């Protein structure tokens, strides 16, 4: 196995392949380790780092235009060091990692989309941490212990109401639009009108 | 308008995909399951199905296959998926409208491999190649 690609190498390779200047590019293909070279990607709106072996989120400072942070299929355990992009970040793609707790996500006040399929979320308290994210409308939890347990017990409908009880602003859950009935049920469960 | 033109452009791809699915018979799956170690490209094809269905998949590792670095398939999970009697029906009823941009990105490293096309998959595996781009 060759040694890991650094972000510097990847940026150089990308520039050569596409004949562009990465500092002005809006989309960057997969690279292996997050390091401060990322701060040069000033125009990047969508950072694609999925399908790698990244263990830690770091070095996002300076990515002033980042809207979509894509880190699916890595080895990430925590959502950390995201404060630097909290003002611009709208979508966080983290499926196929090893995330158990969602602390850290609550700092992303402008988050609209959160993809978390196939992680290790098992407790409702983790979803309660997201309750302050008023713009969050699209959440994906398929393949987490919390989801699988309900799927295996044929209580998928109850699961959806339980999620909506905690996150009443969701428009889409697990790829399926939230319908009026389940929204009403969730509101009643919350003790609302 | 734009939306209708895009829709018309996407229709042939959808028709092709459905035709490819319809060409797979339960006996194809049975004979595939009988193989102890299927061709590498078959393992990668099934990784794509796992990702589209949000099934578990191994953490990524790369291997050299005939001179290009490709992702090692999570075939033990695929075998589990094929063991479900409703597997083919589930594919035929696959909720296409639920595919999101993240999944598309997760498929891209597979599509980038030079051998990931219908011809080489068909040579290796017959009908199970269905769904791959021709040529």
From TrEMBL, chain A:
Species assigned in the record: Monoraphidium neglectum
Q: What is this protein called?
A: Dynein axonemal light chain 1
Cellular component terms per the entry's GO annotation: axoneme; dynein complex; microtubule
State the compartments where it is located: Cytoplasm, Cytoskeleton, Cilium axoneme
Record PROSITE patterns? LRR
SMART domains per record: LRR_SD22 (SM00365)
Presence of keyword Cytoplasm: yes
Q: Does the keyword Signal apply?
A: no
Q: Report the domain of life of the source organism.
A: Eukaryota
Q: Which family does it belong to?
A: Belongs to the dynein light chain LC1-type family.
Q: Which Gene3D superfamilies does this one have? A: Ribonuclease Inhibitor
Q: Where is the NXF1/2/3/5-like leucine-rich repeat domain?
A: 105-175
